[in-house]
Amino acid sequence: FGTDGWRGVIAWDFTFENVRRMAQALADYINENAPSGEDGKLPKIFVGYDRRFMSDLFAADIASIFRSNKIDVTLSSCPISTPVAACLSLSKFWMSIMVTASHNPAHYNGIKIKLAGGSASSRVTKEVEEFMDQNSVLFLYGQKAEQKDLTDVYFKYVAAHVNAKKLKAFKSKVVIDYMYGSAAGYLEKFLPAKQVTALHSEHEPTFGGGQPEPVEKNLALLKKTVLEKKAALGVAFDGDGDRVALVDEKGAYLTPCVIAAVLCHYLIKHKKLKGKIVQTVSMGYLLKRIARKYEMLFEEVGVGFKNVAERMNLDDVAFGVEESGGFAWKGNLPDRDGLTVALAFLDIMASTGKKASELCAEVAQEYGASVYMRRDLPLSKPVDKAVMAEKLRKKLPKKVNGRRVAETLTFDGLKIIFENDEWLLLRPSGTEPLLRIYAESAVKKDTQALLDFGEKLAAPYQK
């Protein structure tokens, strides 16, 4: 398992044989660990799937293997977003299994595990791995699972956690790029259809030849359409609907650092949100500064929202965020949910009467400017993350581009923090053969210069 689930290339390592081996390991884990009810029966399990090539067939196989292992299972009757599966694991089912490769390219597929409304912890996935091939795959003929469309359970949950009155009063136009993903049509459940312009909402397993990842390089059409429609906000979801990106009314991309700061600042100031702020090591300094101002505890964890979710389940966490467009806060699912974030941002705009750009400008004025960028480079070969981080740390000069190095973190790649909170991170991806380089400063040219230094420092690991 990687940062969130197991993923592989379809027909290369993500095959029916390997999926069935994984399903048997999951069945063994469930039979060993799921708590029995008063009637002695194991709790119900849910299996969902996205719009990727053959996701429905892989999901049906998993459900059939669960049935063969005497596990009560419900299979989704339609493609769903991962937040639907997470929500169902919070209320109606002990565990949800989701067949998806999230934001990865079309030739990938994968499996995510959801427990108690969030991603399974590293401890759980490690235990599932230990069950691999302990038993032969039990796949009995005719063991088909009951199929249901349970998306309404999720929509009711979301509706109970957003300000429906404010959203109804919001009359501006919104453009949403569904990126051909399985959350298509979800935003229209909460806003009048005449206000919403939807892009790439059709079912297209190749994602139009692109990658369903809501990062700036993939949002040119969204930016253009926001300007053409004179919309108040542009929204983009990834392939399974748990990640989100936003574009303001000027067509400007809002980085996850800025979105997190707007949300967190508003929730603390106006909703009196209290507790710890937790972010992945790939996030920036704005939340750290917010935590300082309001005297809140602050913690950085490894990349992957499962690490944030784990802290949310263990500590009194007010707000959690990861770099790739995953946000959560107290009172909602302890997991990424693109729809809830989009609705919350619209709610803030409606409540304050301010444009998206004005909300971002307010945050910059109070906590400082943030120019955050990420660069992805192909790896020449698989690398040991810890070994790479230590080797690169030893090569560091005392100053980088005139900035004195104040601190280094090596628990998930190498993060170099400078005296003024600006930083640089180098880490191998947990889901793709890529070296990711992240940086944040107050000025674009400085952020680019930090990325250039990071690329040069990590040159031996690149193709």
SSE topology sketch:
Layout: E1 6-9, H1 16-33, E2 45-49, H2 55-68, E3 73-76, H3 82-91, E4 95-99, E5 108-115, E6 118-119, H4 122-130, E7 146-148, H5 151-159, H6 164-169, E8 174-177, E9 196-199, H7 220-229, E10 233-237, E11 244-247, E12 253-254, H8 256-271, E13 276-280, H9 286-293, E14 298-301, H10 305-314, E15 317-322, E16 326-329, H11 338-352, H12 356-367, E17 371-378, H13 385-394, E18 399-400, E19 403-409, E20 414-418, E21 423-428, E22 434-441, H14 444-457
Parallel strand pairs: 2-3, 2-4, 3-7, 8-9, 8-10, 13-14, 13-15
Antiparallel strand pairs: 1-5, 4-5, 5-6, 10-11, 11-12, 15-16, 17-22, 18-19, 19-20, 20-21, 21-22
Short recap of the structure:
The chain is α/β, with parallel strands linked by helices.
Count of DSSP strands: 22
- Summarize the biggest pleated sheet: 7 strands, mixed
Beta-strand residue fraction = 15-25%
Kindly report the average pLDDT value.
94
In helices, the fraction of residues equals 25-40%
What is the radius of gyration computed over CA atoms, rounded to a whole number of angstroms?
22 Å
Which class of secondary structure composition applies to the elements?
Answer: alpha/beta
Could you give the distance between the termini? 24 Å
Specify the overall morphology. Answer: globular
The unreliable regions are none
- Treating each run of at least 4 consecutive H or I residues as one helix, how many helices? 14
